[in-house]
Design a protein that fits this description.
mainly alpha, 156 residues, single chain
């Protein structure tokens, strides 16, 4: 039985192994790509559309962070945002595989897909919980810069 689980995990890994080859982009662009792919899914349509609805809500919130690209320049903000984007790329590969795989394959491996949808949604939510903290770090940095520019210390 353990051999089956190793075999099953490689089937899904094969789908997402080329994630680095997917079109790059920021989180908002990746979410748009997942939503578009979900609309073309042939199998697991309900899971794909539910996942896409969840991401659509997230996208609307992320769009309010106008400086998302600027935040990635800050080392303390870069890693969580890159991890979010990495998970979105894996999510895109998963949703696209619901369009590209055969019916028989998806029926046989359906439980793996359901688990992956849940895992990726949990992972995305985990990184989203860090965004208020990221925003707070950025606001503190801006406040320090403003206070330094308003009250420059004399140079000795």
């Amino acid at each position: 039985m353990a051999g089956f689980f190793n075999w099953a995990s490689w089937l899904v890994v094969g789908d997402v192994a080329n994630v680095g080859q997917l079109a790059g982009g920021n989180a908002i662009q990746l979410i748009a790509m997942v939503i578009k792919a979900a609309n073309h899914a042939r199998m697991h349509k309900r899971n794909c559309r539910h996942f896409a609805q969840h991401l659509k809500l997230i996208s609307a919130l992320l769009e309010q962070l106008h400086n998302l690209t600027d935040l990635k320049k800050r080392p303390e903000c870069r890693e969580p945002l890159e991890l979010l984007e990495q998970t979105l790329r894996k999510s895109l590969a998963l949703v696209e595989s619901c369009r590209d795989k055969s019916y028989l394959y998806l029926v046989a491996m359906g439980w793996v897909y359901v688990t992956k949808f849940r895992d990726y949604q949990d992972e995305i939510d985990k990184y989203l919980k860090l965004i208020p903290l990221i925003s707070l770090v950025e606001k503190n940095r801006v406040i320090k810069l403003l206070s330094l520019s308003l009250n420059p210390s004399p140079n000795p």
